[in-house]
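Ticket #4471: structure output looks truncated?

Reporter: J.K.
Steps to reproduce: submitted the chain below (332 residues) through the standard prediction queue, then opened the result file.
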Amino acid sequence: MGFAKKPLTVCVTGAAGQIGYAIIPMICNGDMFGDDQPVKLHLLDLSFCMESLGGVCMEIEDGSYPLVEGVVATDDPAKAFAGCDCAVLLGAFPRKAGMERKDLMEKNIAIFKAMGQAVEKHASDNIKVLVVGNPANTNALVMSHFAPKVPKKNFTAMTRLDHHRAQGQIAKRANADVKNVKNVIIWGNHSSTQFPDVSHGTVNGSPIREVIKDDGWLNGDFVEMIQKRGAAIIAARKASSALSAARAAVRHMRSWFVGTEPGEYVSMGVLSDGNPYGIQAGIMYSFPCKCANGEWSVVGGLDVNNSFSQQKMKATEAELADERNLAMSLVN
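Returned output as attached by the reporter:
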């Protein structure tokens, strides 16, 4: 079976981990870029993970994926990013008990500085990057700082998982199919300050607020549930989200590369410069976006001038600005 398209070279970092194990078959199967888009996989992880990653490579061979035209498994970022067209960064340093925020930031700056420098030296000038590893928004910003040859708009952070979580809970509350829940929005940070906003969304074509008829729940328990969903999953399965995180990363990249449906918008953590909602420049902030021809753009013209939305949007903006300032003080 031959494919007309040139293969995309895709780097996945933290590839031996749980999210990696979930996402790799989705990429191989064409879920991320389409079932006519061949791929070459560059899988990166730490040296002590190489045996496990070798087993994953064996499974890719045994999976008989027509779209896969090559696999490289390595602990060397230079090899991992060589000639890459896109990258999904799953690996980050996790917060441990008793760890100060500054210590966590220092650990992740070291990781994402190295990733950025490898991109600068070895990747395509137009590489598209999705950061999943937390703190995702600020890790993406740091990485972009160390890869100045790449346009800043090519670095994004994943809030699609929160977007999906919001869709799922609205569908459940409305007793509707999740495919019929459209245009929820995640504003701000992929953290407990994020603002899941349903004011512009629909269920089966009708406004969410008119369908659910419970602003108390939509402005209260629902918001808190989405903000804390990751912690609830950790408590339940004694491990962080893997299947759903992989699915969200795949859908983020597919929207970006293939495009969104007419009238659809999706949540993406992107550089805030020039946004239409008064959010300060220089942070990676989640906005409603639409995608076409391999480019994202922020959806403008949405009414967010009520005090509830403004309070929530500003709170998560303030957290991101604090993260940015701390990160850049450590970088500098």
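Triage note (M.O.): checked the attachment and the full token line is present. The mean pLDDT is 95.
Status: closed, working as intended.
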